[in-house]
Amino acid sequence: MRKTAKPPSTASPRKQLTGFIAKFNAKIAQQIRAVRQSLRKRVPAANELVYDNYNFFVIGYSTTERPSDCMFSLAANAKGVGLSFYYGSTLPDPHKILLGSGNENRFIRLEGAATLSRPEVEELLRAAIAQAKAPLPSVGRGRLIIRSVAAKQRPRHAR
Length: 159
Description:
Blueprint: H1 13-22, H2 26-42, E1 47-52, E2 57-62, E3 70-77, E4 80-85, E5 106-110, H3 119-130, E6 144-149
Parallel strand pairs: 1-6
Antiparallel strand pairs: 1-2, 2-3, 3-4, 4-5
């Protein structure tokens, strides 16, 4: 039988998250932290669903604890950081900045956290929040939830 995930960690979710980010080179790790901080400020009541998968490290921002209720995600690999929209194919994109051609998911590449402040990116974030299946709680702070950790992963440092 093939092993698909590491056994659950006894470390706190915050400590696990710190370890996942530490796998990246300093520049990308800093970018992940800055983008996460910006998204956390934007949607403090959203749950952060964390996946340290084979191809990507992902933090999804969800109105519930269900991945299908994810509005958008920070996605990182050794090449950089992006912002992925789970239901991006249905978002209005008058500025044509969304990339991808899948049935649902669309994304943008982020040069840094400042990209999130661009008006056309803010429009996409607002639209993704507005079309969420379940509304964001109006008060409170979302939970940090480690959803999966792949036993095997691509290198997080560029070669």
